[in-house]
Please model this.
Amino acid sequence: MKIAIVGGGPGGLFFARLYKRHNPAAVIRIFEQNPSDATFGFGVTLGGSSLGKIADADRDVARRLSESMVFDTAQKIHLNGEEIVIDYAKPGGSIARLRLLAILRDSCLELGVDIAFDTRIASSAELDGYDLVVAADGINSTLRQQHAAAFGTQTRVLTNHFAWYGVGHAMSPNALVFRDTKGGRFVAHYYAYTPDMSTFVAECDDATWQAAGMDNMDDQQRRQLVEEVFATELEGAPLIENRSIWRQFPAVTNARWRHGNMVLIGDALRSAHFSIGSGTRLAMEDALALFEATLDAASVADILDQFVALRKSGRDQFGEAAERSFEWYERMETVMSQTVLDFSYDFLTRTGRVDAARLETYAPGFAKLYRENRGQLDCAS
Ligand SMILES: Cc1cc2nc3c(=O)[nH]c(=O)nc-3n(C[C@H](O)[C@H](O)[C@H](O)COP(=O)(O)OP(=O)(O)OC[C@H]3O[C@@H](n4cnc5c(N)ncnc54)[C@H](O)[C@@H]3O)c2cc1C
Model:
């Protein structure tokens, strides 16, 4: 089998690794527009359960990832001067995105996967002659855009604005800070991903963007404004930039996942909003499902049918949870008018994946605090 993979992100690399390990004679070529060791963003979260699924498929990669991760069970929720620290029953893990990609890249090269860095694919016509084409080229997927009608692509650009920064020390516990200031509302979501680096995602709603004059600022002025808004949390540390452009998130869905011998995975298939911190995991789990679909398939068409059958329902459920999460952030003014206790409860149950029973095991200390103050857990399941 001759496979072309467009995009050397977590989805593309993990699929190449899994397939080549099982089929050493296969010819696999990954096309990645960036040089090796270059990426956007800083650290990403990769929860314990995702690591478990990766380990079931590839113990060696899971071990290498976990050795480079930091784990934390606590998360602070801060709302305008009041805060609650939530202690989750299971730890969340984080890793530098660059490190994750380097581990996956090396694990592919060891097996003889061919990776063409600095190579941008502009059209699927460049991939004639391959049996299977995997479009793992991220949220702005070129292949998906080229065949948007065939895939039934829909894009909704959210109204909030955000930028992804780093901070040069470990900020612990990880936190979500919501602050009314400058005539609007700002959010910072930060967590350590190595002993000396943290991710820091800043967000505000569109009314704030206008009120604070951010629409007339450049990205350097916006960074300075965020440093001012979160001066207490940053304790004088500057925000570090890495393509830290302020933008609005495109929520992308596709009615059809395959077209001819081409298949979408990861962010190209459905963008995972950063507020659920699961895009990396979803891309890797798509890769795993696509690999599993190859195991008993008689043809490429069969592989693609089986991939959709294996993955669709779980992926749709997660996508709907992500939608409820970003809708919650899009209602920032309303949700921030609650007390910190109700706000935290609302936050924890916003996706619909955590109901009363799950909250008791997911965040037992918080469930107890909420029951003591409000009498019962009245989440809608
Ligand atoms: C602010 C922010 C915070 C986030 N935080 C988290 C988090 O904490 N946890 C988490 O799990 N996820 C997080 N994510 C999401 C996560 O980064 C993505 O969901 C994940 O990287 C998707 O993986 P992927 O392999 O599908 O695509 P990508 O990682 O985007 O990789 C696609 C690759 O394709 C390459 N490419 C694109 N077009 C072409 C082309 N035409 N030719 C060749 N190469 C091409 C790109 O250079 C890129 O390397 C966050 C995202 C944002 C924006």
Observations:
- The chain has a mean pLDDT of 95.
